[in-house]
Amino acid sequence: EADRMRVSVIGTGYLGATTAACLAEMGFEVLGLDVDEAKIEMLRSGRVPFFEPGLDELLGKSLKSGRLNFTTSFSEVAEFADLHLICVGTPQRDESGAADLRYVNAAVEQLAPHLNRPAVVVGRSTVPVGTAATMASRLAALAPVGEEAELGWSPEFLREGFGVEDTLRPNRIVIGTDSPRVEKAVRALWQQQVDEGVPFLVTDLQTAELVKVSANAFLATKISFINAMAEVSEVAGADVIQLAEALSYDDRIGGKFLGPGLGFGGGCLPKDIRAFMARADELGVEPALSFLREVDAINQRRRARTIDLARQLIGGSFAGRTVTVLGAAFKPNSDDIRDSPALDVASTIASLGAQVTVYDPVALERARAEHPQLNYADSMLEAARGADVVLLLTEWTEFREANPDELAAVVAQKRIVDGRNALDPTFWRASGWTYRALGRQ
Ligand code: UDX
């Protein structure tokens, strides 16, 4: 009976907490595990440790139903579930860009010794191709049941800010395995979605691992492609917004992820393309992914260009100037500031001698903790007080809908750099603003 299948979710970060709550919502009995006691306490009391629309509600509902519980004990999850999902993080290790697999290793090594009956372990984390095969043998070697502890890999594709939606209605399920038992367990997990027509693909371990990193590499490439066109447009006298629109009607190209601006950041795309390049190096196929170095470089250049535009607007130097930065999160609908382009730009401008004040609707607390050298304000208008230039760097709706006249009343100079092409230039210029954007005249 699929409804009664018991599932453990190991790692309750962004991916794990969202997965656990969604599976409970789908009717499964779920036990979430994390080694971080404080996080587990928070989740038990119904509080989500990060900002994710809709998750608070789902967590509360699942806890109340009794279908979702949390623990810090590996023996407890081994006792409880026959299917274990590994949802721990794989951050960037160091300058090499390679993925840090210590949490994935630890999850397998700590779970395995408790597996006294046949069990299926499925990795969902993003890992370098080849990791899963290594993990599968380690699992079998460490588990008391030996080969009856089987491991498959099933990457997730969820976007922050849409985690619940992307988990409940994924656009595909991929499972890498050659074991009928693993395939059966994963199929049972997503039976409702498969019945609704969600494609279910069974591949080998390596292909499943590659699907995830190549999807992210493609998305990053698409963003950098349009940002490269923005660079050309700037010097050629063209308009990248019109260009992108015209391209988007070719359905082989499509309009999604073709938004020019400050480029990509966050906990996934930047680190995933770097880890992918590092892995290609190890595999001896470095040239196959050398284009990703350009993708990364184009992305970084957009940050430099944004700073240049602001500097030009205020007459060549940031020293002693007052600068307002709207946005701290790496994208709207998230409080994630990992590799945030907005905070990177803000920090560089501060290091060039300006007083920088940042406002963000949800990410202020995190930003304050990590970038104490910046000033913070609790509202857009307060942040803009006395500004020589305003930079819009994360396209929250609040900023998209900002009233140029209200803002004009508090700034020192009506100058704005729209780093996300989020505003209507005609509208802002009509209220007397000097408006500059990436990829436009
Ligand atoms: C991404 C993938 O979309 C997801 O499938 C994967 O599982 C994890 O990585 P996420 O990092 O949450 O998800 O953010 P996403 O919405 O994909 O945006 C990534 C970055 O690209 C953001 O910084 C965003 O501002 C930027 N972006 C996106 C653009 O600059 N232009 C665009 O057109 C689209």
TrEMBL record:
<comment type="pathway">
    <text>Nucleotide-sugar biosynthesis; UDP-alpha-D-glucuronate biosynthesis; UDP-alpha-D-glucuronate from UDP-alpha-D-glucose: step 1/1.</text>
</comment>
<keyword id="KW-0520">NAD</keyword>
<dbReference type="InterPro" id="IPR017476">
    <property type="entry name" value="UDP-Glc/GDP-Man"/>
</dbReference>
<dbReference type="InterPro" id="IPR014027">
    <property type="entry name" value="UDP-Glc/GDP-Man_DH_C"/>
</dbReference>
<dbReference type="InterPro" id="IPR014026">
    <property type="entry name" value="UDP-Glc/GDP-Man_DH_dimer"/>
</dbReference>
<dbReference type="Pfam" id="PF03720">
    <property type="entry name" value="UDPG_MGDP_dh_C"/>
</dbReference>
<comment type="similarity">
    <text>Belongs to the UDP-glucose/GDP-mannose dehydrogenase family.</text>
</comment>
<keyword id="KW-0560">Oxidoreductase</keyword>
<dbReference type="InterPro" id="IPR036220">
    <property type="entry name" value="UDP-Glc/GDP-Man_DH_C_sf"/>
</dbReference>
<dbReference type="GO" id="GO:0016491">
    <property type="term" value="F:oxidoreductase activity"/>
</dbReference>
<dbReference type="Pfam" id="PF03721">
    <property type="entry name" value="UDPG_MGDP_dh_N"/>
</dbReference>
<dbReference type="InterPro" id="IPR036291">
    <property type="entry name" value="NAD(P)-bd_dom_sf"/>
</dbReference>
<protein>
    <recommendedName>
        <fullName>UDP-glucose 6-dehydrogenase</fullName>
        <ecNumber>1.1.1.22</ecNumber>
    </recommendedName>
</protein>
<dbReference type="Pfam" id="PF00984">
    <property type="entry name" value="UDPG_MGDP_dh"/>
</dbReference>
<dbReference type="InterPro" id="IPR001732">
    <property type="entry name" value="UDP-Glc/GDP-Man_DH_N"/>
</dbReference>
<dbReference type="InterPro" id="IPR028357">
    <property type="entry name" value="UDPglc_DH_bac"/>
</dbReference>
<feature type="domain" description="UDP-glucose/GDP-mannose dehydrogenase C-terminal">
    <location>
        <begin position="324"/>
        <end position="425"/>
    </location>
</feature>
<dbReference type="InterPro" id="IPR008927">
    <property type="entry name" value="6-PGluconate_DH-like_C_sf"/>
</dbReference>
